Amino acid sequence: MTVSTRRRRPELAAFLRIRRARVTPADVGMAPGLRRRTPGLRREEVAQLSGVGVTWYTWLEQGRPINASAQVLDAVARTLRLDQAEREHLYHLAEVPYVPDLADEAQTVRPEVQGIIDAIDPLPAVVYNARYDLLALNDTYKTLFPSLAIAPRTERNALWQLFSHPGCCSMFINRANELPLMVATLRGAYGRHVGEPAWEDFINRLLGLSKEFARMWHSGDVAPPGSRIKLVRHASVGDLRLISTSLVIQGAPESRVVVYTPSDEQSRALLDRLRTMDDLLVGCPRHARRVSEILAERAAATEVEAEAETKDPASL
Fold it and tell me: Does 33 score more than 80 pLDDT?
């Protein structure tokens, strides 16, 4: 037994005893019975309700060095009515890798998180989920990456924007270094979502969209989110060197705040200049178009589609 295990087992035993004592028979639909010395459940009752052996559970609560599976710990957690934080604590004490329930991956952020990234302004800040969907952004981020900010809701994803536009119009100068890292980060998160329809559909759409993405994806490389220098080319002001820093959001493990800090005074000055511009350019110097022009075209296309839907089919 390792030193870590020897220290964790007494904590595990104490934690289970305390949590067992607070669950009454009535809480789990059992009769109180006679001569009950404590208000909580008995060990054999926890074992029965969890579908495990009485001896095994007794040894677990005594802190003995026995192995526990995630399925068994989940059953014990349900019986003891543990919340998410308590369940995670149980896993750590039992030395079982904890994987949160990610079925309902966040697609929005809490108001206080939006308030934080607004307060970070004039530094650009954004909230991504693990799939690089854009969940929230502040005003300076909108000026730095206008193509993402004005994209239709279904396309507000950093990877989709990078791989759906020509390489010359990429927002990153160091595209050859940056994109493989982003795809490797995506693959690292994908391991927790294999088989989920939303993730499988997104990956398949990117594979069909871009041979470049397919090559990077099939490399099998994996990387965690991290801080690094990003070289951003903006058609309105030129090139900026920015340090990207990822910050975890408590209570939302699949989301992160990314803040971009100028790495030199020239980049800081260019970022300040961007914030004063009303109609920004999108794309590379050769293909640059103004935001107002793009939005006007989309509005016109939407109007045409709406008119087509309201026409009498008999008149066509």
Answer: no
